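Researcher: Here's my situation. A collaborator sent me these components and asked whether they could plausibly form a single complex. I don't have experimental data yet, so a predicted model of the whole assembly would be a useful starting point for our discussion.
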Amino acid sequence: MKHGGDLTEAIARHGGEPADWLDLSTGINPWPWTIPHPVPGSAWTRLPSRADEQALLAAAREAYDVPDDADIAAAAGTQALIQWIPYLAGAGAVAIAAPTYGEHSAAWSSGGREIIAVDDLSALPERAIHAVIVNPNNPDGRIADRGALRHVAERLDRRGGWLVIDEAFADVDPAISAAGMSADLPILVLRSFGKFYGLAGLRLGFVIGRRDIVERITAALGPWPVSGPALHLGTAALRDRSWANATRVRLAREAGKLDQVLTAAGLHVVGGTTLFRLASHPDAPALHAELARRHIWCRSFDWAREWLRFGLASDDGLDRLASALHSVR
Amino acid sequence: MKHGGDLTEAIARHGGEPADWLDLSTGINPWPWTIPHPVPGSAWTRLPSRADEQALLAAAREAYDVPDDADIAAAAGTQALIQWIPYLAGAGAVAIAAPTYGEHSAAWSSGGREIIAVDDLSALPERAIHAVIVNPNNPDGRIADRGALRHVAERLDRRGGWLVIDEAFADVDPAISAAGMSADLPILVLRSFGKFYGLAGLRLGFVIGRRDIVERITAALGPWPVSGPALHLGTAALRDRSWANATRVRLAREAGKLDQVLTAAGLHVVGGTTLFRLASHPDAPALHAELARRHIWCRSFDWAREWLRFGLASDDGLDRLASALHSVR
C-alpha cells in the first residue's frame, strides 16, 4: 500500500463497507477538533477573501510560533506544497533523509531532479543543492537535532539551495520545530493541519520560511488556494490553544495504551510519534493479512517487511485490535 | 481592482461590514445549489479516498459530456490548474486571446513564458506553441466558433503545443463546450464548478483533455488535491441535472432583469453571459465610485475605463441598484 488512510484497496481485497473497518493505517488524530456546525453559508458560496486569508495566517503564526521576520503561506494541504517546491527550487540534486514519506521523492522525481537518498543529512553529498527531512520522521519517529539542521541549512545556503523540513507530526512536540530558524536561513518548514487536528479531509497546510522563498511559493499557488471552510475552521482551531494542549496530553496517553496492546501481542515497538506507533514482528506480513481479513487495516511497508505502523484507536478499537492479535498468535 | 468577489478592498476604502454590501463584482451564481446539511463527518476527518475521487469524476464526466476516450482530473479550483499548466507545457511562447481574465497571463508569465496577446486566435503567430482562450470570454462574453478552435488546436498539435480553453462560464450554454474534441487534439478544457453552482468557496474545478496530458497534470497535482467536502458536495451537485437545467432558465431570466435595470439607467449592455453582464457608460469610473459609496460593488477595468461588469442580484438587490443608479444620474 502506498498510503494509509484509503480503505479503497482494503475493501477491494477483503470486502466490507468503510464503516465495518477499523482503520489504523493513518497518523491522523481520531479525536478531531470539533467542528462548530453550521459552517457559515458564505464560506461555501463566496470566493475566499484576503481578509479571511490574513486571519488564518495570523492564527497560524501564533500556533506555530513563527518569527515576525519569517513569512508563512497556506495551501490546500502540505501535499500541494510538496508538489510545487521541486518546480520552484533552483537547479540541482536533492538529498532526502530516507527511508521516509514517499511523496517527497516522487515530487522531486516528477520535477526532473536527481534524488540522493541518505541515512542522515550530516552525510550531505557535495552535489546535493537541496535537502529534505521529515522531522519527526515517518514512520520511525526519529527526531533530528536542531543544531545539526541549522548546520545543514547553512551549508545549503552557501550552495544556493533549500532545506525542506516536513514537520507533519511536530504538533505533538512543538519544541522540535525549526520555524524559529527559518527567517535567516533557506529553511522551508511544512506544517500539516489535518493530522493533529484530525481534519485531513479539509486539506490545509502551511509553509514557513524566508520571505523571498515564501513569496515565490505564494505566486505559484495563485489566488484562492485554500477553501472557505478550511479558512474558517482552520482559523478557529489554530486559535484554540487549550484544545491543542489537552490534545498533546491525550495523544501521549493513548499512544501508551496502544503500545501496551502491541507489546502484549508480541510486537516490538521500535518508534513513532504519539500520532502513530511503529512496531516490528518477524511475521508482520502474515499479521497484516490476518488483521485485514478481520477488517483491521494497518500500514505495511514493502521496503521493511518486518514493520507495521498503527494509528491510534478508541478503547473499543484497542479491544478489537487486542482480540484480533491474540487470536492470530 | 484585480478580481471581483473580494470586498476587502471595498471595505477598506468605503467602510461598512460585508453584510452591508451588495456585491455585484463576481460572476458567481447568487442562488447556489443547496448544501444538504450536515456534510458527513468523515468528509472532514478522513483523507479523501480514491473511491470518492472516482465518484466525483464519474459525475463530472456525465455533467460535462466528456468522451470516453478523453480523461478528466479534478483540482481545488480551476485556478490551481491555471497555475500548473505553464510549468507542464512544452517549451515555447503562448498566445492569449485578449483582453480576458488576467490570471492566465500572470501564470504563464510566472512560469517564464513569452506571452503574445492576440485579438483572435485565427491570427496565431508562427512562434506561438501554445494558446489560451476563455470561452465564453470574460468580461465581454464573446463566444469562439468551435470549427475555428479545432483548426487552432490542429495547428498547435503540429507544433507540439497545447490549446487551453477556459470554459469557466460555459455551464450556462453547454453546447459551446469543446470537451467533445479533447480526446484526439491537445485541447485542455477547464471547467469551473464554483461559479454556476454558486459554491466558489468550495474550490473545485476540472481539466478535460487527451489522456497523456491529463496524466501529466494529475501527477503534478499529487494525491488528495480536492477536499472531502468538495468531493461529497461536487458529486451530488453534478448529478443534479434537473437543478442545472432549471438554473440555466432562471439565470437567463435574471440576466434579462438586470439588463433592464442597467438600460433604464442609461448604461449600454455590450456583452456578458447569463452569469454577468458587461455594460458601458461614458462616466463609468464616476458611476463605480458613487455605487461604492452606497456600498454596491461592481467590477471596473483599468484597461477599459468605460466598462463596468455586474453580477446577478435578487429582486431586492436589483431595486437597490436601480435606485442607486437613478440617484447618480
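Model: Some features of this prediction you could bring to your collaborator: Residues 14 and 72 of chain B are 43 Å apart (CA to CA). The first strand of chain B starts at residue 22 and ends at 23.
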